[in-house]
Amino acid sequence: MAKWGMVIDLDTCTGCQACTTACTMENSRLPGESWQDVLFYHEGTYPNVKLMWFPRPCMHCENPSCVTVCPTKATYKDPEGGFVLMDYNRCIGCKYCQIACPYGVRFSMDERAFVKPDIRQVFPSGDGRQWNPPYQAPQDDPGRGIGIQPHGVVSKCTFCYHKVSQAPAGVADLDEDVPELKEYVPACVRVCPPKARFFGDLDQPQSTVNRLIADKRGVRLKDETGNKPQVYYLSGGATAAVPSLRSMAAATVPTGPFSPPQRAPDTGAIAAHSADWTADQA
Amino acid sequence: MNIEQTRRLSEKQFAIMFAALCGLLVVGGIVIHNLAVYGHAAFNLDNRGLFWGLPIIVYDYFLLTSTGLAMIAALAIVFNAEEFRPVLKRAVWLALAGLVGGVAVLMLELGHPLRALWAIPFSFAFSSPLYWKVMAVSFYVVSLLLLLWRLLTPGWTMPALRTHALITLVLAFAVTAIAGVVYGSQSFRPFWASGDIPVAFFFESLLGGLAFIYFFSYLGYAFNPALMPDNLRRLFDERMPALLSLAIFIHLLFVLARLTSGLYGNLEGLQVWQHLARSPLLYLELFVGLLLPLVLLMLPATRTRPWAQILASLLVMNALLIARFEYIIGGQLVPLFKGAWAPDLLHYAPSATEWLLLLVAIFLSNAVNAFGEMRLHLGQEA
To answer: Is CB count within 10 Å lower at the N or C end of chain A?
Structure first.
């Protein structure tokens, strides 16, 4: 049995978002439902400011808090490959998994449309699903959260289970450069132009992912939560780094009498963008 | 009370029930319409990080008030506190009425409420606090119903009900504590995460229970203290002001302790306290909702005045709703890895449909409570 994992080299990643696009197309996701997102933020203050980015899929944790808290076992850890999957037929839409996920990688798409026009209204579904896009991949497995989800449930990245689970048994790495394996490679990995993503079996010591983690000191996001992600990041410090949550946030430097010093970075442009978005929504 | 007064009181209770049912019909109709047309897009929630909004706040508020009422009734029976006899039936019935209102709102909030009825109990998801919460609530309701039935049976005595009351007490405490664990266990949300949240919830429940007993007892007598029996008046003038004051004080301690440490803390997520400290809602809660009632109940000049007791209970009920709002929303205000399109702190204002859900719970609970006042003669024990 494999324990599939991903390595993302932040020094190589260009933030092009091909991974986001490929994931959206492969899995027929809605706008705002970016299972695989690239988060942009900036660090420092003018004139010493750097634009940074950070690719963020579901971490498919070894000890996932979303699985722990689910009251119906609708989200579960697949014993065959270490995937964290959703069973749409068991989910009651309580959203406790969204609350419990430290990485913000779960989505409930019954809320207001993220962008206008509401694509769900443009391509409505007749069978109780969120939408019916004119072009969609054929895979459909509601018990594993694959395919377009029905209303009232939470969705998440599947690590492209429908592809990876078909890989030949015992293979250590799923490399898009190996012709006989490329069909089993997750969409986000396969399309990555600078080859910043690697996918393989973390249980096989000789796998490329294990070698990279060891050689380049792979780190896991928010490891202090105890979730033990199966996604590792490599960063030599040349470009992007694994950020803290605070560096993601736009700045609102507190002005109250109790404000501690150096509260937040200055990211005013992001705040302005967010304010526009909020105003649009209102 | 003579027969004529009893008849008039019954008519007033019917009027309350009728008004509540009319309100429920109108408000519930609008809510159902909105949910049918817009689905959960009728709520001001989104994937930026605010997943639990006013409906969950309302649910938890009514649930914890219910357990508070049950715990007060059960504690009185366990400790043979005969002076609480005039409010026991009302407290137990009110606990059920509040629960009905809260659960109804929860059902309207869930993505698949009917599926939840079987999927949760048969999932055996022992690792989930919500699983245990649902199981505890189920047993709690059964225990409450049985306790009510025994309280309605003539000739009951406190020693005879002691074991049953103890079971109800344990179940009510379990529901309250698990409700605290649901939030307190989220270690990466420092605004929520704390081992003392179940304890804080316990005292909040008791505080809510005491306030509800005050207010709804007065409502049961149409806010006419002259109609209240002597033993109830005695309880309200002697024991209850001290108990309610103590509960307010303990709740205040929890709020101020968390506020102070939160304001000085530099941990990611605790900046929400500074956001709250700039909001008038917090001061409304502290000064009007808690300190003013505390003063009213401690001053000898106002302590035994019915208007002061009614006002104090009403203010406390509102303060607890604000506290529940600030706590549940505050823990979600920092967006988690949402990128440039998420602000530093999220903004949440409940939608009209969400506010109407609060009214649904209020109308439904009041209708059920007035029905109990009419048919079960909740004050008759006095």
So the answer is: C
Q: Scanning every residue of chain B, which has its alpha carbon at the shortest distance from the alpha carbon of A256? A: B274
Helix crossing, B54-78 with B158-184: angle to 10°?
Answer: 150
A:B CB pairs within 8 Å: 181
CA atoms within 13 A of residue B205's CA, in its CB half-sphere: 31
Q: Helices B129-152 and B85-109: crossing angle, nearest 10°?
A: 140
Q: How far from each other are the two terminal CA atoms of chain B, in whole angstroms?
A: 11
pLDDT in tens, A142-152: 999 999 999 99
A contact test, residue of B45, B47, B109 with most A CBs within 10 A: B47
Tell me which of B43, B181, B259, B338 to substitute to probe the interface with A (most A C-beta atoms closer than 10 Å): B338
Closest residue in A to B130 (Cα) is A71
| Domain parsing of chain A, residue ranges | 4-246, 249-281
What single-letter DSSP state applies at residue B22? H
**What's the complex ipTM?**
0.93
pLDDT of B257 > 60? The answer is yes
Percent of chain B with pLDDT over 70: 98
Residues in chain B: 382
Q: Are A97 and A68 in contact (CB under 8 A)?
A: no
Say if CB A197 and CB A6 are below 8 A apart: yes
- Nearest-CA residue of chain A relative to B123? A72
Residues in chain A: 282
Mean pLDDT of chain B: 94
User: A152 to chain B: which residues are within 8 Å by CB?
Assistant: 40, 110-112
Q: How far is residue A188 from each of residues A20, A172, A230, B156, B241, measured CA to CA in Å?
A: 7, 18, 15, 69, 64
Query: In the CATH hierarchy, which top-level class contains the domain A4-246?
Result: alpha beta
CATH code given to domain B14-368: 1.20.1630.10
Q: What is the pLDDT of residue A245?
A: 57
* pLDDT in 10s for each residue of chain A, 282 residues: 899 999 999 999 999 999 999 999 999 999 989 999 999 887 778 888 888 889 999 999 999 999 999 999 999 999 989 999 999 999 999 999 999 999 999 999 998 887 888 899 999 998 889 999 998 888 999 999 999 999 999 999 999 999 999 999 999 999 999 999 999 999 999 999 999 999 999 999 999 999 999 999 899 998 889 999 999 999 876 555 666 655 555 444 444 434 443 334 333 433 444 444 445 544
Residues in chain A closer than 8 A to B264 (CB atoms): 258, 260
- Asked if the Cβ–Cβ distance from B336 to A101 is below 8 Å, we say yes
- Three-state SS sequence of chain A: CCCEEEEEECCCCCCCCHHHHHHHHHHCCCCCCCCCEEEEEEEEECCEEEEEEEEECCCCCCCCHHHHHCCCCCEEECCCCCCEEECCCCCCCCCHHHHHCCCCCEEECCCCCCCCCCHHHHCCCCCCECCCCCCCCCCCEHHHCECCCECCCEEECCCCHHHHCCCCCCCCECCCCCCCCHHHCCHHHHCCCCCCEEEEECCCCCCHHHHHHHHCCCECCCHHHCCCCCEEEECCCCCCCCCCHHHHCCCCCCCCCCCCCCCCCCCHHHHHHHHHHHHHHC
Does B353 reach chain A within 8 Å, measured CB to CB?
Answer: no
Q: Say how far apart CA B370 and CA B347 lie, in whole Å.
A: 38
Ramachandran angles phi, psi of B320, nearest 5°: -70, -35
Over its C-alpha atoms, chain A yields an Rg (Å, rounded) of 19
Q: What is the reported pLDDT for A261?
A: 38
